[in-house]
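Model: Ready when you are.
Researcher: Fold this.
Model:
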Amino acid sequence: MTPNPVRTAPYTPPTATYRLQLQPGFPFAAAERAVPHLAGLGISHLHLSPVLEAVPGSTHGYDVTDHRSVRAELGGEAGLRALAATARAHGLGLVVDLVPNHMAASPAHNRALRAVLREGPDSPYARWFDIDWTAGGGRLLLPVLPARLPEVRDRMRVEGGTLRLDGQEFPLRAGTEELPLDELLDAQWYRLGWWRLARTELNYRRFFTVSDLIGVRVEDPAVFAETHAKIVELVRDGVIDGLRIDHPDGLADPQGYLEDLAEATGGRCWTVVEKILTGEEALPAAWPVAGTTGYDALRRIDGVFTDAGGAEELASLYRAFTGSTADRGGRWEATARRAAYEVVGHDLAAETAALTRLAERICAADPALRDHAPWALRTAVRELLVRVPVYRTYRTGGEEVLTPEAARGAKAAFAVEEEASAVDTVRALALGALGDGPDHRAFRARFAQTSSALRAKSVEDRAFYRYAPLLSADEVGGEPGLPAVSPGEFHAYCGRIARDWPHTGTVLSTHDTKRSADVRAGIAVLAQCPGEWAALLEEVSGVPAPDPHVAWTAWQTAFGFGTPDPERLTAAVLKAVREAGLRTGWTEPDPAYERAVAEFVAAGPGRIPLRAASEAAFALEPHIRAHQLGAALVQLTMPGVPELYQNTEREYRALVDPDNREPFAAGADDEKTVLVRAALRLRRERPEVFGATGSYTPLVAQGPAAEHCLAFARAGEVVTAVTRLPLRLARAGGWQDTELVLPEGRWEDVLDGVREFTGGPASETKAAELFAERPVALLARIRE
């Protein structure tokens, strides 16, 4: 890939951000009260969850209802502007989470959708949404009924132009208010249906498989203008200094959207995208953004603290413990592929059907493409979707994603070679190679959007919960089949980021991570002692579990969490088994199985303090601490803009949402807080060291334990050195004569402000001395 030019910007990038989860119980005023404390940490910007009007009571804000106004429950625009003023007075700016892809599909609260329901396809708001009116017989399916229509019909009431049912409200088409109920229902521009119909009959684009969130067509200039006017105003007024773009892969044309956004804001704000990069996939160089929100950095940081050999041994133990089948204890690649087939054929059946309809229509209108059977097109769509190795294709580079090899694999699903030619047609449509008509453009966009939804639902929300040898690797953006990253790979990644995306975001914990960084650190240490983990499982084998996969998952979750907490652990494990979809699920639950899971967690993982009850486990605590501190320091000093998730300036143990979305609360400082303050102070005092011109130089230790020292220098002014795989280090005899050569000059340990070291080839620093006080070191050049 051609390197990006050094990116200069008409704004000052953040030096560090701090994410706050706003909600009615923690509004702008509460955030304002937290500003002095957060400014004292050394951050430069507050990062706020979505601030536009949302469904009343929403605890996350991603269910936007009105783009014209700041959310009243949070304090409205006056509250946001007051927060910005207070932040500014303390030297802080604001970054805001922007949700362009979807809105709440709530007629009672979404004025644009309400207009479409009342006026139909001729409504000026019909262009806002991807609605296939032909698929619904000219009507929009609303899968909102708790049961089949005949079972709820008697609870429906018509009151002054509104149809009401159990608290739900639906506008009526003009002139239909006086009709008998059955005729009235048939006369609407929408069809009220049982919620289960969404899986196969839905005819609007949604967010993933969430029918409560309807996709928005921001590729339409008028829609973009209407949905972004308020945010653009706040940027231009200096209230907002940065934007986090939620789920850009859901958009028809992410690059086009980002170009429109940059033009609308004058390029005057730091912008990062929630883009999940798979493997060595690169962020498109043409995107006018500072980088990603940081999941690619998270994977490398976690990986460099993970023992590769031990992870492989854990995988073997896991297969033996659970029984080796495709779903339970099998190989990662097979687990992910099977999950993809399930999701594309079941959960995304409506999306697959929409693509098939588009393909049929295109083929019927083109003499060169006629006579592909609908089933063949449907099969080709399915087989190509499951073979997309990343989230989706973009404007360019699609041939590298939908490769000829992928096409050959897709054709293997056909018994007759001639019928397999449907694969070539669908692939060409997905790549935009067969025309540029409205249906052609729609197919290409919808294929990419569906591919993104498939990847998210099948990998992150299914396979990650089915493949559990090392749960710390089952994280957003992770690679569970290859959980470890070597120091060389880590340094190469950091070098690329420093060169191409110096102001990209980096994270360790977010509102979407399945486990906080400190919980993952507790789990990751098990890769250094797989034998001890097997022994721990044997110790607690007297607590019967519903199945071995749940036992492994629950005990490992409890080990990482560290403290028995039956309520929180039970909620997390129940979510895990529902997402896995092996014995129960969100839409087809098995109550008896779920009761068994809850009883098991209450009796075992939620009651027994695993890390304290076993002498072997208790001995791991110093090594968990080394991982926690090491990961935190690396994230805070590597290339990019580090983000602290709320409360993570101290030890923070949280599980999957909603467990990790509790409001911010100030707490007592601990060892981690001291480290955070020191690192952020350096970033604030020496911004040139960590910015676009701040170089990144790997420092390689020498000696018998060299692989256990991860170190790098930033612009020759700051040195980070941390201990990796400390348990293996201790068992191999410690640091012994291992040495690290620091850059020339005198260096101060900023974590204690007392120790000094001398750099240069003639002044090797003993690792045992460098790490004598703690498993990490942060050194700053003493300026004469």
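Researcher: Now this one.
Model:
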Amino acid sequence: MQAKETLFADLVQGRAQQFQVPLYQRTYSWTEKQLRQLWSDILEQAELIERGEKANTHFLGSVVLAPSPQNDVTFARWLVVDGQQRLTTLSLALAAIRDHIRDAQPRDAERIDEQYLINKWQNGSDHLRLLPTQADRSQFAAHVRGPLTEQAAGGGVAAAYTFFRRKLVEAADPAAPQDVFRIEQAITSRLTLVAVTAERGDNVHRIFESLNNTGLKLSQADLLRNYLFMKLPTRGEQVYETYWLPLQDSLSNEELEQLMWLQLVLDGDDRVRRQDLYAAQQQRFEHGKATEQDIEAYISELHRSAALFRRLLHPEEEPDASVRAHLHRLEAWQAQVTYPALMLLLDRRERGTLDSSGTARAMSYIESFLVRRMICRVPPNNLNRIFQAVPGQLPLDVPIADGLHQLLSADNRFWPADDELREKIRKAPFYQFGRPQQRKMVLQRLEESYEHPEPVDFVAAQLTIEHVMPQSPGDEWLRMLGEDVADGETVEDLHSRLQHTLGNLTLTAVNSELSNHPFERKQGLLQGSHLEMNRRIAATERWGAKEIIARADELADRAIALWPAPLRGVGRAERSRDWHLAHQVLAALPHGTWTSYGDLAAFLGSGAQAVGNHLAGTPGVANAYRVLTSEGRVSEGFRWTSEDEGGDVRSLLSADGIRFTVTGAADPVQRLTADDLALLVTEGDDRTEDEDTAQRTPGGRQGEETRADRFFRQLAADDSPETVEAVRTLLARWEKLGGWIGHGAGQVTTSAFLMLGEAGLPGRGIWPLTLYPGGGRGGTAEVVFQHLAAREPFTERALRAELLTRLNELEGVDIPEGKLELRPNFRLSVLEKDRNRELLAEALAWFRGRWEERGTA
């Protein structure tokens, strides 16, 4: 057996060879969690390449190889005993890069193909440089050499390939552009592997077990603590009692590790990763030949900094009211990425070079930077790099707050100016971007700007975000909207365009009788609200497009006053983020789905005509031909933008799994709405407000309406008694299976979650369905495939596909496979049929059984 460190390029390049994954190996199983971590490592290495740093590489893991029985002297074949997940993932990433550049740089695309993916002169399965297990083989082959068929579109291999296609589009973001060839170089030449090569007769399974039986690993903080006290042979006991024990008592092990990392960043090392903390700090001590006094001084400084760090974790410990308010808001924002800048400010104040007023002003710039970017939908993917660089890049010739203002306004920081902020508040679907608590904080700050003499206690009030014009409007709402429809736009398009904009959103804790009723019935309750913004809404005579836009303009004025603008005159890139976001979401369209110009426009906060013009004039946009009219037809104005593209659009759509009706229109079941598109680019941990607050409904006091009561009252308002009774039967069957019913905190529209797991712990449970009252259009059951994709055992796509198949057995339910990563729904009225209730009960029993087996699989 031989073991040596190698690179992916060195492993797979060279003479004709093939890496074969044995048939007894499990199928490809990496989920988006592992893919996101790998992508982060790749981008970091690409950035180091851009800086010209050659020494740093990233260790990816081991690959155990053994000679294949089919090996011969002219064509080397290796069995991949361990490491197939890494090799498959890296190969798919390179296939995505090849396809990403194919139109613009066909020679480089061919080079990538021949260097890493195929054996050019071999035929059949030998053509592939990596040969996965039989279960993954057709999928992998289709993504490496085509054609992509409907059968090969699902599964983990397809999901990984789509992930990289989407991330490559995202990496071209002008706010943080990444050169695609540096990304290729990072994958092939900066990710190191340990290749363990067995000889014939070696026990490769014993090798595999020894490599993977690692036991409980020490944290970075544990390793560094052990190192520090080994360096204190005479002073260790006193230093431990004086500094380390209080430090350890004030912070958890994870928090202590974060503080140690922050200390390195504050010292100017803006490149160190938290997982490399121990090696980086050890290297500094060894390079400087640290004495016992140096080690003691470092631990003493950690002890001092811990008190400052605790204020970030526990803002109530901050003595200054203005600084404390900023820290509370940043904590609510979950702005851990800003910790390097915040620690720098608190440290400078502690040392006397900054006062509390300057600290608060500097924090207002940080808050504004985050809020304006979120409202204007700037991707957050580069925030870590921006704030980690603050201590080392802060100008030295100006006051600290001014220097931070200048630094955050610099080129490629993308801190939106007033005109962009105003436009996005008017047009962008605010409700679909950022995290729930971030959206709530923006509305809370806007309410506070009215400076009401009796301000609301936002903690005690338990306010939720509500749509004034409901998401499921009834006939009266549609008639009102019809008065505002412009030429070429339908009422549905206008509703889709405005429903999630900031002008249509408010905070409320009012009684749920608001539901989705006409505006006249909402006015009385809003008038009695303690929130000034609600009283102003109630004072209007109607609530249509003009009123929503007028309120958006008023809120924009307040936002501009609340959150300081960046400095003018600093070089800024052109505003191309909206189209970049369009390219990103189109690249992520699942196989077997299409969208319309209106849906894409509503998702972007743009207009359908502008979307059409952009797609018609921009070459190389992935899946542009899958944007159709609202009727599901190819637009008369559609044209291929380059000679490299082309072909019959309908044939291409059929190859992509799009079905057509008898009238020749694309199947509306496969259409992705603006809400569906938003889910395609939403990270898995961005839950909705109701999911964060879902809880088992306790018994209420006499006369008090419980969440369960509210749910059934709202359901009965729009659905037949037969549907309501069918839902009661469904929930009772679920509880008999051992599940429990959680209800969201929504007041205007509530919800019911079919839960398994621990009650009262948001994020700890799992549920297959969320039930919603209909708001005039009939209640729906939402199938939360997106939620399940991040929870075991349903991270395995085959299990989610099995759930979809079982649900589609219900008469009246037809969920396309292309929505397997989204949140499709079906009408609760289908449960009126006895057979449908039995089929759904069987599907739920199957779901619970798979969940129970997760610990023994």
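Researcher: Key takeaway?
Model: DSSP finds 38 helices and 17 strands in the chain.
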